[in-house]
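Trying the structure run again after the queue cleared.
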Amino acid sequence: MIAYIIRRILYAIPILIGVNLLTFALFFVVNTPDDMARMQLGIKRVTPEAIEKWKQQRGYDKPLLVNSAASGADKITDTIFWQKSASMFAFDFGYSDDGRSIGREITTRMGPSLAIALPTFLIGLVVYVSFALLMTLFRATALDIAGVALCVLLMSISGLFYIIGGQFVVSKLWHLVPISGYNGGASAFKFVALPILIGMIGGIGSSSRWYRTIFLEEIGKDYVRTARAKGLSELRVLFSHVLKNAMIPILTGVVVVIPLLFMGSLLTESFFGIPGLGSYTIDAINAQDFSVVRAMVFLGSALYIAGLILTDISYTVVDPRVRLS
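Done. Tokens:
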């Protein structure tokens, strides 16, 4: 097990390097350091001297990938890519272009993101699996057909509609919760209740339909027919056999989602004014802040790889037949 985890971590290093290179290339294809300086300083009446000073202060006055004027290792190390990206492998994210510590911002904003994402994930998982089991229990009946139709309907509606509709009905018409904003402590519940509800409703369609497909595939197998032949009730078969044997495909979808809990929801946090990691990323993109963008992309990639490793490990917990080597 330990050898497998170490090997997977070593495999992750070239992947993270490739992600950094791709992010770097995509960002600087549409931007130049001069464009970034004008964005931060203000487009009107910006002097070339001010642009050069801004670039020197933030390390954007160097070549992008290769410094042909340097010698030896400095050809690679004395570049924007190396100086902005190498330290991230030690999770030192440096400073944003406006001078704030990115690591401190991530630590501060992780709380609001988790306050929305964690309840949405846990409550949603229970609701999705329960609804899928209900449709499986009453398969090929009017209830099952109505449930599938509801799932397809919910899948067909944009997530943006749920956000705007929820804000209009719950906040503007009924005045039950604030339409946007965030406070820490006990008062945070009234600010995150609506985003949690909207996130859970938005995922019912796709998730419940997927779990239903998994359960229907399991329920047609030989071990289920054997369990029925022994006289077990349909509920006992579903919960004691089908649900247990469907855990591997469920874990595949569940554990991989865990890294996304830390990264927040871009749309939800932006529309509800939640100061989480999702809104932080959107603000950095709008401000053309490369330091924050590459830090968030790197962090998301690292968490995703960690989620994949956790998925493989969890397989051995729910199914002793799985062995990691």
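The two ends are 7 Å apart (CA to CA). Worth checking whether this holds up in the mutant runs.
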